Amino acid sequence: MQLGMIGLGKMGANMCLRLRDRGLEVVGFDTGAAARDALSAYGIPTAASLEDLVSELQAPRVCWVMVPAGKPTEDTVEHLSRILSAGDIVIDGGNSNYKTAAPYAQVLSEHGVGFIDAGTSGGIWGLANGYCLMVGGSPQDVAIAEPIFLALAPKGGYAHVGPVGAGHFVKMVHNGIEYGLMQAYAEGFELLGAAEEFSLDLHEIASIWRYGSVVRSWLLELTEIALRPESDFADIEGVVVDSGEGRWTIEEGLSRSIPLPVITESLYRRYASRDKNAFSDRLVAALRNQFGGHEVERRNTGEGQGL
After folding, report:
1. How far apart are CA 185 and CA 65, in angstroms?
2. Which candidate in 171, 224, 237, 245 is catalytic?
C-alpha cells in the first residue's frame, strides 16, 4: 500500500520510516527542502509540491496531513480537495481541534474525497515503540486506510473509535489527562526534593518506582531519564507551553457540565510557569521534551531548543 506523508517534522519523518520498515510505500512532502533532503537520505522518495506528491500515488490515494493544527492544516486540506480525485482519502493526524473535522470532511466530500481524523500519540519515540492511534471516520474509509494504521501502531494500539471527529475528540481528552498526570509527578518530586533532611536521590526514586509501583507509567520512565545525573535538567527553565489540547478539554467539560478540576489546575500551572521557575514546572517542561521533542528554554540563554 502507498501513502503520501505531508509534513516531515519530528513525527512525520519518523512515521515514514516506520511505514517503510513495515513494507509500505511512502512518498514524503514538506515545504522545507531540508526536511525533504533529510528523508531522502533514508532512501524514501519525496515530492517538491503537493501536485507532484499526488502524481506519485496510485488510486485510491491516501494522504496523511502531519502539519501544525489550524490554518496550515486548513490550507493543506483545501489544496488537496482541488487536486485529489473521487475515492481518495485525506487523514489529519495532527493535534487539530475535533470541531474542525466536520468542516474538513465537508470540503473534501464535495469532490468525492474521504476524510479521517487520526488522533496520534507516541511523540519522538513512536518510530521504535509505535504510535497509539485513535481514528474517526466512516467504516468504508477506515477500512481502506487500515493497513497504514496497523503498521504504525503497536499491537493493540489502534482503534476505530467512531465517526468523523471522534478521533480528535478522544486525542484531545487523552492530552488533557496527560496534563494532569505530568503535573502530579512534577509536584510529587518537588515535594520529595524539598525534604532536605532526608537528602533524597530523586533519580533513584524515579527509577525504583518503575518496578512494581502503582504509579509506574511511561511518563515515570521519562521522569527517570530526565533526572539522570548526566542529563541537563538543571539547565532547563520552568516555562511550560500550552499547546491547546488541555484548554479544549476544559472547554468541553464546561459545555457538558463535567467537572475537570485536576486538568484545569494543570493548565493554570502552565500559565503560572511563565512567571516563576518552580522545580515542578521545569520537570513538566523536561517531560514534554522527552516524549515529544518539544522545545525547552535554557537557563541564562532564554533560547528554546530540544535536548
Report:
1. 33
2. 171
Per-residue cell: 30: 514538506
**Long-range contact pairs involving 105-111 (C-beta distance under 8 Å, separation at least 24):** 105/164, 107/77, 107/78, 107/81, 108/77, 108/80, 108/81, 108/84, 110/81, 111/81, 111/82, 111/84, 111/85, 111/86
Residue 281: predicted pLDDT: 80
Cell of 165: 471527529
pLDDT value, residue 303:
47
Residue 276 is predicted with a pLDDT of 65
Residue 178 falls in the annotated catalytic set? yes
Asked about 171 being catalytic, the answer comes back as: yes
Give 23-68 pLDDT, tens digit per residue.
Answer: 999 999 999 999 999 999 999 999 999 999 999 999 999 999 999 9
The length of the chain, given as a count of residues? 307
Place of cell 492544516: 73
Catalytic residue, candidates 10, 71, 178, 221: 178
